[in-house]
Specification:
By secondary structure, this protein is mostly helical. Among the domains are: 137 residues, Leucine-rich Repeat Variant (Alpha Horseshoe), CATH 1.25.10; 43 residues. It contains 33 helices and no strands. About 4% of the residues have low confidence. It catalyses: S-ubiquitinyl-[E2 ubiquitin-conjugating enzyme]-L-cysteine + [acceptor protein]-L-lysine = [E2 ubiquitin-conjugating enzyme]-L-cysteine + N(6)-ubiquitinyl-[acceptor protein]-L-lysine.
């Protein structure tokens, strides 16, 4: 393969571009002498490059396109082929409306033939430029003409600028890919994975987006998604996320998370592969960026949470998605060690986000995932899982938030943990205030007994009128539909709180917990103090009242 230059200047005796191009083409066609051919190609290029708008309005697109494609296809000299490729590029650039005509003349097969037998880098690079211009308007023709795999396989030979052009063409073409076109692109996947890690950010971004588009195109076929996984798409995306951590959450990072989420949502092999590659350690690092960086809002945070949400199956199942969800449950049960490591990495990060005061949408996503994790974790591994995450204090905090989207899953977590580990959790739930928070929820309902439901809802709603039911992964499943109505009733937490209190935290149960005695004494003293203050502020004042108030304060302080 050689590289040649110096074709830009015309030889003496060149046909002038002011001649009628159709006449030139007709003359050359009857007398295809090399010199005449080159002169005609120069004339076409000069007219396209320097012609006035009036000249270009009457440009003979069809005969010129046919001539250029024929010149590129014939077994001509290096100079003829290079000028023909350049002429097509000029034609597409100067007259974008001519691209359909250019394609209909057989340009793509002619270019692919040149690339397959690539002898000169100059010609190959011009051919790539032409393909990129065509793909901008007719990507499907490039894809189905076989240009994607051909260009990707040659991309390492090109300069960085031409590699950018090549990846732009590939990106545009893959955007029109369907499952029926899989055979035209799968062989290009390993090279695309390599380009996704390219040091040039523009090339890497294009390659990453191309892989994402492939995954999106194949969501209807788990077989094709499995094939992408086998060819390195999943491992490459994880490697990219690992390398990018610390450099901020940029577009390539978001696209990589989106790729993994979309693939895992429709492929069990991808889900298992993610667990085997310890994706939880990667996700947890990005999750911990949320409390420390105010610029990571919900739009960015949800891509982290979405990936967790497809790996850990939901407990409430959509009937149309049951089979896939049940299979995910089998993975969790068949690979308990993999799931435990994943859950351990994730749970600690979720707790830190929940206690950090993140936005309500983010907290809702986190608490929902925490519930799913505790539900699927076995009783024998739960203590190890909870050891480094102060779940009880986190739950106590969540149960003070007057938002039913937070209260309901938080109460379900309490119920799940007490069902699986009653002895292990009881002390910490009493000590850290979970039991007290549940008491307050029940008391809140009692205070509104006999009043309108609207008053209770008003108290609970606060700033939380928005529904978060479909916050996670509403865009992933083609079968599911968003109802548009909230599935959590504002008063729905009450019966759950009452049931939990009656089942696990009855007075006779918590009275045996050492720390609860102190809590009870403080609560009783505080109630006495409240009544005494109310009496004092009502105007009923006496020295005995003052002494009583002082005595109660003393008991509170001693407690």
């Amino acid at each position: 393969m050689s590289n040649s230059n110096g074709v830009d200047s015309a030889e003496s005796g060149i046909i002038q571009p002011t001649w009628d191009l159709e006449t030139i083409i007709a003359t050359v066609s009857t007398n295809p002498e090399p010199g005449m051919m080159i002169s005609a190609l120069h004339a076409i290029r000069e007219t396209l490059a320097n012609g006035s708008d009036e000249q270009l309005d009457f440009f003979p697109v069809l005969p010129v396109a046919q001539f250029l494609v024929k010149s590129l296809s014939r077994n001509g000299t290096f100079e003829e082929n290079l000028l023909a490729a350049r002429g097509i590029a000029y034609l597409c650039e100067s007259l974008p409306s001519s691209i359909n005509t250019v394609v209909s003349c057989g340009t793509i097969p002619a270019i692919c033939e040149q690339l397959q037998g690539m002898e000169y880098l100059d010609i190959a690079e011009e051919c790539v430029k032409v393909l990129e211009k065509i793909a901008d308007q007719d990507p499907l023709s490039c894809l189905r003409g076989g240009a994607v795999t051909l260009v990707v396989n040659l991309i390492v030979f090109f300069s960085c600028n031409i590699q950018r052009t090549a990846m732009s063409m590939v990106d545009l073409s893959i955007g029109s890919c369907t499952e029926e076109d899989a055979s035209l692109v799968v062989d290009a996947v390993p090279t695309l994975c390599s380009m996704a890690k390219h040091e040039d950010l523009q090339i890497a971004d294009s390659a990453t987006f191309s892989l994402l588009n492939l995954v999106r195109s194949f969501i209807g076929s788990s077989v094709l998604l499995d094939e992408l996984c086998k060819r390195g798409v999943i491992s490459t995306s994880i490697e990219i996320l690992s390398d990018l951590f610390g450099a901020g959450v940029d577009e390539r990072c978001i696209n990589s998370f989106d790729l993994l989420t979309t693939a895992a949502a429709h492929s069990l092999l991808v889900t298992r592969t993610l667990l085997e590659l310890n994706v939880g350690s990667i996700i947890s690092k990005y999750l911990l960026l949320i409390p420390d960086h105010s610029d990571i809002g919900y739009v960015k945070a949800h891509v982290f949470l979405d990936l967790i949400d497809v790996i850990v199956p939901p407990i409430t199942k959509d009937a149309e998605d049951n089979q896939l969800i049940f299979c995910r449950e089998h993975i969790i049960r068949d690979e308990p060690n993999l799931f435990f490591q994943f859950a351990k990495d994730i749970l600690s990060a979720l707790v830190q986000i929940l206690v950090s005061g993140a936005k309500m949408e983010i907290r809702y996503g986190c608490v929902g995932i925490m519930y799913n994790i505790t539900y699927f974790t076995t009783s024998d591994t739960l203590p190890d899982l909870m050891k480094n995450a102060n779940i009880s204090r986190c739950l106590a905090n969540l149960l003070t938030i007057k938002n039913c989207h937070i209260l309901v899953p938080s109460l379900k977590i309490v119920d799940t943990l007490m069902t699986k580990l009653p002895g292990y959790c009881l002390d910490s739930f009493v000590e850290d205030g979970v039991v007290n928070a549940i008491d307050e929820l029940v008391l809140l309902h009692s205070e509104f007994a006999g009043r309108s439901e609207a008053r209770l809802e008003e108290t609970l709603a606060g700033h939380a009128h928005d529904c978060f039911c479909d916050v996670l992964n509403s865009h992933l499943s083609s079968s599911s539909s968003i109802s548009g109505s909230c599935r959590v009733e504002n008063s729905g937490f009450v019966e759950l709180a009452k049931a939990i209190k009656a089942t696990y935290f009855a007075e006779e149960v918590i009275s045996n917990v050492g720390y609860s005695k102190t809590i009870k004494k403080i609560k009783d003293s505080c109630m006495e103090l409240k009544n005494a203050v109310d009496l004092f502020t009502s105007g009923v004042f006496s020295s005995s009242n003052e002494a009583n108030l002082s005595s109660i304060l003393g008991r509170v302080m001693r407690s």
